[in-house]
Amino acid sequence: MTRLRVGAAVLNQTPLDWAGNAANIRTAIAEARALGVTVLCLPELCVTGYGCEDAFQAPGVQEAALAVLAELLPETRGLVVSLGLPLVHRNGIFNTACLVADGRILGFVAKQHLAGDGLHYEPRWFKPWPAGVRSTVTIAGAAYPLGDLAFEVGGVRLGFEICEDAWVANRPGATLAAHGVDVVLNPSASHFAFDKIDIRRRFVLEGSRAFSAAYVYANLVGCEAGRVLYDGGAMVAAAGQLLAAGPRFTYRDAHVTAAVVDLAATRLAQHRSASARPALGPEADAYFVSAEFAFPPLAPEPPAALVAPAVWEASARRKDEEFARAVALGLFDYMRKSRARGFVLSLSGGADSAACAVLVHLMTVFGVSELGWEAYLAKLPHLPALGALAGDARAVTGGLLTCAYQATRHSGAVTREAARAVAEETGACFHALDVDALVEGYKALVAGAIGRPLDWGHDDVALQNIQARVRAPGIWLLANLQGGLLLTTSNRSEAAVGYATMDGDTAGGLAPIGGIDKAFLRAWLVRLEAEGLTGVPRMPALGLVNRQAPTAELRPAAHHQTDEDDLMPYPVLDAIERAAIRDKLAPLAVHQRMLAAFGDRHAAPMLARWVERFFRLWCQNQWKRERYAPSFHLDDENLDPKTWCRFPILSGNFERELAALRAAVLASPEAPSRP
Q: Under a CB-based contact definition with an 8 Å cutoff, are residues 519 and 637 in contact?
């Protein structure tokens, strides 16, 4: 056997959903069989789901995983399949890939390098397996090999790099190459981040070249556990060339990407490599678990077996497309897995809420474009009424999204009309509510209690906040009546400085744009208005949103309130946030970077005031970030303290560092002269 068809699956799994996860695995195996695949790689921890968190430590979870594995064994007749699950050995829990051939367990490879940075907490649950160590584990009275090992199945040598194993300098693939492995399987659970697909593609291609082997990369897809998104993107490569690439952000529960690999060619590359140093001796011989397996003759190429990356992948606007497709798929999965009856949104007429409405609409546009109406609606069996709306994406959005514009005396006609236009553009159900009487009632109630009237000179922030808070009960009531999920519209820029009213505009169960900065979001809406997206026509109604300066619209109109007057220009805010939080620079170093970036537009003292404002607001508002609704992780600049960016709720507020900044600015030639 020198040529065989291999497959990499992407699966949309859910933690601890034993029946659903097993069904998706069965679907992938059946699809692989139909494609003529004989070696199939499934994603990391696909049996349990990757995001089980502390439930991995529960004995019942480990037992259920082994029971499901046993149930799946008959499905693998005539195939070689890898399945991921946690495995207990000597009181340690290990993240393993189980290789199964023709219905028989051959052994378990344990992950050597655990992901423990950013949103990953694998060392909390798993132990890293030491390189070069092999053992045995007993399951239901039978002993199986476990550890750092490879397999020789029917004359084909198979080895593993499990997700993080491929991201480190000392990749296990080097050991696999020394043992002459033909095919490297990489079962992964690699979360989505902007442009991350490029990094994965590089290590897959380089692995196939450097190891002189075929490389098969599998991944999860969709919103698995709530905050983390997966984009799929299965790949098969050999000799440094990409043979097949699967779709990203698919709405299917399972998808297999297949390709034919020529083992004679990869072995010849090993023969020719002057730098190759084959492992020899008894230890090398013991590295392999051998099993008989009769590979069938290579089946003819099935029609449309390979799926090329979508056209938008190569677009100069790929980030726009990735953002839209990642969040839209995340919303869809969150809705169906939580069995929410759609979404509810307080639509203000501004950029943030408009973006949320558009993203809900796009989840239907993208899903139906890929699946067709029948399959799309079949994934929402708890919403049977949608069947009557099939054929019209705007009508389906109306069945899934309810919006309300909630006016006070400070709300303007411009935002009211913008909100109505966005609802009409997307098809959302729209209500206009007047909550001013509720605001005035609370003001009178408290004024009577404290013995004085409230006024803008003394009570500015309190008077703004009560308007935002009064809007929460009504929109929650609509969400409860519909059985829908209330979306909150806070973005990352606002989260950084706490520019949001707790229990007001932060009310909700999910923050779909909580991981994206305001500057990008505004530019994204402008491009949707002018150009649309791949397969999505332009949305002219967004012009009513885009022509406005962002404003909370909580002060009287005479104040001409804007967000940037309250804070600072959003591009500056976002740049300070990246320098201070992502890059961990002290205030003085942040100021120097801002001078380099914005010194031609803003004076040094003003930039210094904005830097100081940012650091003070950042420290004061960590408690808010701890309370925000869950948001989707979109890049490595996330501020979510539960998955990415830890910071103390109480701190020293950078007093020493800010004093150094003020002293440096006063000493600079640009500083105003002292009286």
A: no
- How far, in Å, are 39, 113, 242, 611 from residue 214 at the CA level? 12, 22, 10, 51
HEC-encoded secondary structure of 584-613: CCCHHHHHHHHHHHHCCCCCHHHHHHHHHH
In Å, what is the CA distance from 556 to each residue of 340, 352, 359, 566?
A: 37, 21, 31, 14
Whether residue 565 contacts residue 575, with contact meaning beta carbons closer than 8 Å, is answered with no
Residues in the chain, how many? 675
pLDDT level of residue 555 (50, 70, 90 thresholds): low
> What would the pLDDT profile of 42-93 be if each residue is shown by its tens digit?
999 999 999 999 999 999 999 999 999 999 999 999 999 999 999 999 999 9
Task: Determine phi and psi for 615, rounding to 5 degrees.
Answer: -60, -40
CA count, 13 A, side-chain hemisphere, 68: 28
Exposure letters 499-537 (e unless 16+ CB within 10 A, then b): bbbbebbbbbbbbbbbbbbbbbbbebbbbbbeeebbebe
Closest Cα partner for 213 from 255, 292, 160? 160
pLDDT digits (tens, 9 = 90+) for 211-239: 999 999 999 999 999 999 999 999 999 99
The phi, psi pair for 395, rounded to 5°, reads: -65, -40
Tokens of 595: 């001078």
Alpha-helix runs per DSSP H in 345-431: 351-371, 373-378, 393-400, 413-426
Name the pairing type of β-strands 254-262 and 241-245.
Answer: unpaired
Given a cut of 80, whether residue 456 has pLDDT beyond it is yes
Whole-number Å distance between alpha carbons of 352 and 516: 10
Q: What angle do CA 482, 487, 490 make, to 5 degrees?
A: 160
Q: How far is it, in rounded angstroms, from Cα 221 to Cα 80? A: 22
**Distance between start and end Cα atoms, the chain:** 89
| Mean pLDDT for all residues in the chain | 93
What is the band of 317 on the pLDDT scale with cuts at 50, 70, 90?
confident
DSSP notation for 125-138 = H-PPPPTT-EEEEE
| Listed residue (147, 7, 18, 137) closest to 72, CA to CA | 18
Residue with tokens 């404003």: 551
Q: What is the pTM of this model?
A: 0.94
- Measured over the CA atoms of residue 392, residue 398, residue 399 and residue 401, the dihedral's sign is positive
∠ CA 570-324-530, nearest 5°, is 70
Q: What value does the mean pLDDT take over residues 108-135?
A: 95
CA distance 520 to 27: 38
Tell me which DSSP letter residue 313 carries: G
Measured between alpha carbons, how far is 251 from 223 in angstroms, rounded to an integer?
11
Check: CB of residue 399 under 8 Å from CB of residue 427: no
Edge-to-edge strands of the sheet including 401-407? 429-434, 401-407, 343-346, 485-487
| 8 A C-beta contact, residue 218 and residue 42 | yes
